[in-house]
Amino acid sequence: MGSVDHMESQGRMGRWVNSIEENAIALILGLMVIITFINVVLRHGYNTGLIWGLEATSYLFAWLVLLGMSYCVKVTAHIGVDALITYFSPGWRRIVALVAAAVCLVYAFLLLKGSWDFYANFIGLPGTTGSWFPTGFQTDFQNQSWYEGDDIPMPAFLTFFEPMLNEGEAYEKLPLFIPYLILPVGVALLLFRLLQATKRIYTCEINGLIASHEVEEAIEEMAASRSEGVK
Predict the structure, then answer these.
(1) How many CB atoms lie within 10 A of CB 9?
(2) pTM score of the predicted model
């Protein structure tokens, strides 16, 4: 089953997440292009620039990478090595794929714990205790919700956070809990996508987590188009 087919076969929640994910990626790419273009024009045409442009594009790029991590699981675009697996029977390939998916799920869960533990204090919430798996929540932690970025000014429409997280004090720059939000959100999306992929492997909709042989398929398509052109 191709990536388009299995995306269409998902339920309402899957389609809702697909829409948010794809629109967010498109929006981020567009914003990065616009900010970079404006900065180039200002720098070379008017000897000035957006002071906050570099920081903004850096945050947007981080969001793009972390959203793309889960998106690539959805469309089976991650690169893997299957030179040995191809010699297995279909039954053994499915077993190996399920084991690999289980390992990925454990990894994503641990990554989610780590990302939440890093992010939680930036929004004034406790992280989890335990080295590997959560055993509870911190009872004593440093509230870091007042931490700010370097250059991006605080947008006026986000000032409602100030009485909740900054004791009524005004933020001069964008607080870090806003750009850092992508850490738990991006990893949670990755875990969600891996759960979906594991289910599709179990129901034999797909053969594994890695990409299909795109190079070979592209070469075959190119050869077919050339042969048709010769005719």
Answers:
(1) 12
(2) 0.81
